[in-house]
Design a protein that fits this description.
It is a single chain. Helix content is 25%, strand content 0%. By secondary structure, it is mainly α. The longest helix is centred in the C-terminal third of the chain and has 11 residues. The mean pLDDT is 84.
Length: 108
């Protein structure tokens, strides 16, 4: 439940002029800067308009990352999970990093 609080970014009555479209707030979280995985819920087809797909580095399996760099070193797409992770992390939340990562990577 807690991770979905980030979905308020799609509500004009909460986010005001900073309201984001629903597709930008809800859905799979994925690492940017590398080719999308077939394991994504909607598969690679859903990334057809993502410019990273045809980029000479970002379109490769490892993209801008060293193989085996670890999940903590990935730059993740922006969404409700990432939003809640940073809100909690930057506001003195006492949930240990392992718990925060459960929120952050919930949709990954």
């Amino acid at each position: 439940l807690l991770h979905d609080v980030g979905k308020v970014l799609a509500l004009p009555e909460v986010a005001g002029e900073d309201t984001l479209p629903q597709w930008a707030v809800v859905g799979d979280t994925f690492p940017v800067g590398c080719a999308p995985s077939e394991a994504c819920v909607f598969g690679r087809k859903s990334f057809e308009k993502n410019p990273d797909v045809s980029h000479p580095v970002y379109g490769e399996e490892n993209g801008m990352y060293e193989p085996g760099c670890g999940i903590s070193n990935l730059t993740m797409s922006w969404g409700h999970d990432e939003y809640m992770y940073w809100v909690l992390k930057e506001n003195g939340c006492t949930i240990p990093e392992e718990g925060l990562n459960m929120i952050r990577f919930h949709s990954f």
